[in-house]
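PROTOCOL LOG
Step 1. Enter all chains and additional molecules of the complex.
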Amino acid sequence: MGRYIELSTTQDSDLVVRCSGDWTSANARALELDVAATEPSLAKSTNTVIDIAAIDALDTIGAWLLTRLRRQGAGPSGGFAGASGKHQSLLERIDNYDPEEAPAPTRENWFTAPFDTLGRTIMGGSGDIYAINTTLGHLLSAFGQTMIGRAPLRLASFVQQFEQIILRAIPIVALISLVVGAIITQQTILQLRNFGASILVVDLAAILMFREIGVLLAAIMVAGRSGSAITAEIGSMRIREEFDALRVMGVDPYQALMLPRTLALIVGLPLLAFVGSMAGMAGAILVARVYGDIPVDVFIIRLRDAMTMTSIMAGLIKAPFMGLLIGLLASLEGMKVQGSSESLGRRTTSSVVKAIFVVIVADGLFAVFYAAIGF
Amino acid sequence: MDTAPTPAAPAAMTVHDLNVGFGNVTVIDGLSFELRTGEILGLIGPSGSGKTVTMRAMAGLVPHRRGEITIFGRPFSELTIRERELLRRDWGVLFQQGALFSSLSVLENIEFPMREHLDLSPKLRREIAHVKLDLVGLPPSAAQTFPAQLSGGMIKRAALARALALDPKILFLDEPTAGLDPIGAGKFDELIVTLSKTLGLTVLMVTHDLDSLEAACDRIVALADGKLLKAGTLTQMRAATEPWLRDYFHGPRAHNLEG
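Step 2. Run joint prediction.
Step 3. Record the structure below.
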């Protein structure tokens, strides 16, 4: 029959299944095939004897295969012939397991599954709107309590977060803004030169950098850099029950963790946006000199006419709102982490993606709003 | 080694003159003992005496600076990388916190080592995983749950099922009954004894639990400051004159051992 099973017939029974060799995990595949090949004969036979006297080594996998064989052949009450004492006790223990008891894993209908997912996504999205308001409420109440002196002002925590989230982000934000400012200026100069109006690049660069690009780049960088960090921090604290520890000690986690971070974002993001815009202008000056032959002093004089306080303010006013949105989403996603490390990874990703999306949408809304009020 | 009494059973693992340290700190210094085939050996000692480090060194998780660990008569250092990999399937480790993969269900956790190392059909693998679940006394309904949804005792049982997935010959248990209620701990001791008998397991158990020592362990090895303090049966340990052992076995928490 196979390497491990031999079939024969005797006078007393129409089928003798003689098992031999090592019935262990090392031979699992071959054993499984042998057992599968025996099954048709077992089904035909009415009186089967399973002889295991020749089995050398037996482990749980072998014991389970034998048990399966026995249940199919000799029926649930039949036993093994020639079992040694050691093998017998293992077989008896394994026989305790009844696969009927195991619940079948729930499978979704292939047809309804996509609709189910769609519905859950939509409901999850609307749930997010509710949850983000809840988080905002928690944060505002924590802020209010600090203001009226009912909760401590966590200055040390705020300063530490400010350094982590804002100050340490300055080099990368400045660098990226410089490069982006240079690229924008280079592209516009090449176009404007056709009209003999390359000097207008100064107006364009200044307005673009201060009103849009500076703040947007800073917000996107911070969302990626610190939004993920905040979510991961809060999330792992939730997994390790540190969050619950804070609560039972009577410390509001929103007060102790989320508020300093969100405040640092709100206060710091305008600063980062300004630094970014200035770096962008530096890039513009450099490229205007190299590609447009616009001397630095000419650039500066032109810049004085092109720039207004309105342009600077239009950019900076947006920054705190973006900081708040990043903080809210990061805290919210961190709070959603449950149990597993996989969930932590998923929430961190979703925190960054959502924050960047929301920041860009908010920027668009501000642009519409400014245009409407003529700012 | 010549002076040691003839062992009742051949050694599954021996530790000879083991030295383990991290940086400037030496945790284990000149430790020798043996783990005999088929026995349940309890490893005790005060906190910080290097019990867990010893176990981790034996399981090959921590490198040692000096000394020799042999497994089934073969020095670990002389094995090739391939042989070591194969050997690792011969031992299962139950970590203190279970160390179940939190993103997999209990059944998937148990299936994982089998999926990695054994050539099984998915159906058989699933059945075997259910058998292991039944072996450690978890209800079939626990199969689809995730580790975060389980109680401490169930996590230990599920982790034990995973440690048993590849039918190891040697089982390392790191404080298996810590954090369990006395009834749950008692049942866990019973489970380990039954499993060790039916599956022919050799067990090394790091523990603080006096009841476990009495209920489960055949022999006890006591460590102090990274050295062997004493090895022997519970009766021999109780008769020991070393101050720490006397405090340990006759202290206020040892009352039910005396009676």
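Step 4. Note key features.
Chain A is about 70% helix and 5% strand.
The domain at 5-101 of chain A is CATH 3.30.750.24 (Transcription Regulator spoIIAA).
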